[in-house]
Amino acid sequence: MSKENITGFIDSELKDLLPNFKWRLVRDSRKKLVELYFTFHVKTEKEIQVQDMLGQNNEPGIVQFEDIICFYDPAVSHVKPQNYLKAFSFDSHVGLEKGFLEAVLRQLNLITKQGMVELRDFLSDDFAGEYYLKWQDQQMEGLIQTLKDTGRYDDSLLPLDLDEEESFFEKLAKDEADGGVERI
Questions:
Q1: Phi/psi of residue 118, each to 5°?
Q2: How many CB atoms are located within 10 Å of the residue 14 CB?
Q3: Residue 2 binned pLDDT confidence (cut-offs 50, 70, 90)
Q4: What is the pLDDT of residue 129?
């Protein structure tokens, strides 16, 4: 197995956690960020129609909710935290602690479970205006402290595994080695 990194750890932890949501990880090498897209749905009466921010209506009988968590390096990425459920800044040269990532994923699982209940309540309330998930920073800090107090917080650092592209000069050097002929 290759060297453990942030995206590999998140993927592995989510598979072990068996969360109540589906997810997809997206890494951006140039921007030095990782986005965790997640979605969950609740079943509802076929007559209930909900419109999202883009003006699209739900499928009959199902209301799906989607959001994103972001891990980014503010020195490189120009992320707008308000566009995410939660955006975590970090130094991409240092990485993130395993215990911190574990706490984020546990917190996300709790929030989505609670969010499913709140979404059902929202759908049954004729006067509700909008629905959104709420990230609880204080709850997250408490979870981290509990992990530390019980000796289950892993402070080993995980690097941000980025597929670095070859520089223009590296490509030129390779071309020179091939006699200037492009190999296909």
A1: -65, -35
A2: 19
A3: very low
A4: 83
| Cβ neighbour number for residue 146 with a 10 Å cutoff | 12
Question: Do residues 65 and 119 touch, judged by C-beta distance below 8 A?
Answer: yes
* Structure token pair of residue 43: 């079943």
Mean pLDDT rounded to a whole number for the chain: 87
- If you classify domain 6-177 with CATH, what class do you get? alpha beta
Q: Which two tokens stand for residue 95?
A: 């990485």
Q: Which of 2, 3, 13 has its CA nearest to residue 95?
A: 3
What angle do the packed helices 137-149 and 98-124 form, to 10 degrees?
140
Q: What pLDDT, on a 0 to 100 scale, did the predictor assign at position 3?
A: 64
Q: Enumerate the domain spans of the chain.
A: 6-177
Compute the radius of gyration of the chain from its Cα atoms: 21
φ, ψ (nearest 5 deg) of residue 176: -65, -40
For residue 182, is pLDDT > 50? no
- DSSP-assigned beta bridge partners for residue 65: 40
- Give the residue-averaged pLDDT of 72-94: 95
Torsion of CA 121, 138, 21, 10, to 10 degrees: 170
Q: Whole-angstrom Cα distance, residue 11 to residue 5? A: 10
